Amino acid sequence: MSTEEVKAREMLDIIDGRTSLGIEFGSTRIKAVLMDSTFSAVATGSYEWENQLENGVWTYSLDSIWKGLRMSYRKLASEVFEKYGETLSSVGAIGFSAMMHGYMAFDADKQLLVPFRTWRNSMTEEAEKKLTERFSYNIPQRWSIAHLYQAILNKEAHVGGIDYLTTLAGYIHWQLTGERNIGVGDASGMFPIDMETKTYNQKMVAAFEQLAEQEGITLDLDAILPHVFLAGNEAGKLTQEGAYLLDPTGNLKPGIPICPPEGDAGTGMVATNSVAKRTGNVSVGTSAFAMIVLEKELQAVYPEIDLVTTPSGDLVGMVHANNCSSDINAWMNLFQEVTETLGFELSKDRLFSVLLKEALNGDSDCGGLLSYGYYSGENITGMNEGRPLFVHSPDSRFNLANFMRVHLASAFGAMRIGLDILKQEDIQIDTLVGHGGIFKTPEVGQRILAAAMRAPITVMDTASEGGAWGIALLASYMKASSGESLDEFLAQQVFKEDQGVTLEPTEDEMAGYDVFLKRYLAGLSIENEAIEKLI
């Protein structure tokens, strides 16, 4: 089709409501994507934001949540008008997603009881250990139930007033539909899911309520947690009040069907066609996580491995590292200051591209350099706080190429430790797909990630589209109602023509990364010392 014909078809999709809108709340950016009937993004909008460390808690304010939602949608709607001359008044379906886990507790008057506690907080170590032992099931610190139990153990006054406990995606969905619903993937980061019933594990629900009772708290956990929905089901409709929350201009009409809200892990799986068994993906952003769809339960409980689900409720082994790109971004900001001070005009995208490419000229073992991009605690390596750290010996090969390479290698270090544990369980992986902004620069992140994972890494054309596109796909899947499973829908309709580009790591690259990893493990005591001494 010609460019004019494509544009005409896209405009008809918009006019006739054959579109899907996806909005995802990431750690540093809220992104909105409008998708047409061919699953292509026809308009986008975004809003940059940052979490705040307030009174020792990583949080986002409710005001910033709603401002970011409206601004990202407003930019998307403006792009629609500029490109097609149409005022966006309706879409075929909507989906919302956000950072998984965390703690948003509300009273019966729908008032937030304590500031939103995000996944980034490492304040629930006591709850994590006690719940993991009681359930014989790994309960990470960032899970909603760990936050709730820690609040109970801490005797926090707000616990008795909880009427509803949800995630950020669940909160947005609730406010825009009036429904206390959530997708199973996001729910699996709140409380363990029963693989047979596809909802909260009732034996563990009873066990938790007994633990709460021992602390003098009576809870009906099923009543305060959101209802669990599988991909493909409608989880609510946009209300009049919700339409105004999203679009204060009043142009957007109510009644639009909304799919189950999902976490960023689930949308990452969808956006990379990694929801079938024996497939996996690696998401690289502020945090990094590898998701492997399992064929069987794990034989043991590993604190480094989270058990979550796909949006269809299949079991997933998740290796989640709290820290990934934040320190790389900080160094890039410093380099941009240098270029500006010297009087050079260089866009951030250009700066990233040029400097990241230098990493390919570095030594496979990073030249003896070492870094930890720990802005927050890191559960996999046992750190309860973070201190970004860069160190090298006097005889190390300290140059720009190795400097860039070591920060990329370090960004994948904690995740590699977790994947080594999964390999002990003889987990089989047919494909491993990388996605995230770092893959906008061809080959660099993909090659170093392949060396770190000791496996081929595939990157698709949609690698940088991210979770907003993924949740838009889930909205499209709900709207399709064709009887296909989610993995069939993705493979046969969405990704049929996009097989991606796959890079195999060389023996030298893998051996070099293994040398770096030994240095990374040996240097953890330095990071511990930095946490203790740098207050």
TrEMBL record:
* Lineage top rank: taxon: Bacteria
Q: Which CDD domains match?
A: ASKHA_NBD_FGGY_BaXK-like
Keyword Transcription regulation on entry: no
Matching entries from Pfam families are given as:
FGGY_C, FGGY_N
Q: Which InterPro entries match?
A: ATPase_NBD, FGGY_C, FGGY_Carb_Kinase, FGGY_N
The residue ranges crossing the membrane are: none
The record's Gene Ontology biological-process terms are: carbohydrate metabolic process
Record domain Carbohydrate kinase FGGY C-terminal: where: 281-477
The alphabetical list of record keywords is: Kinase, Transferase
State one molecular function term (GO): kinase activity
Domain Carbohydrate kinase FGGY N-terminal residues, every copy: 21-265
The answer to keyword Transport applying to this record is no
The record's section on PANTHER family has:
SUGAR KINASE, XYLULOSE KINASE
Q: Which family does it belong to?
A: Belongs to the FGGY kinase family.
What is this protein identified as?
FGGY-family carbohydrate kinase
**Source organism (scientific name):** Listeria rustica
Task: Kindly list the organism's lineage.
Answer: Bacteria, Bacillati, Bacillota, Bacilli, Bacillales
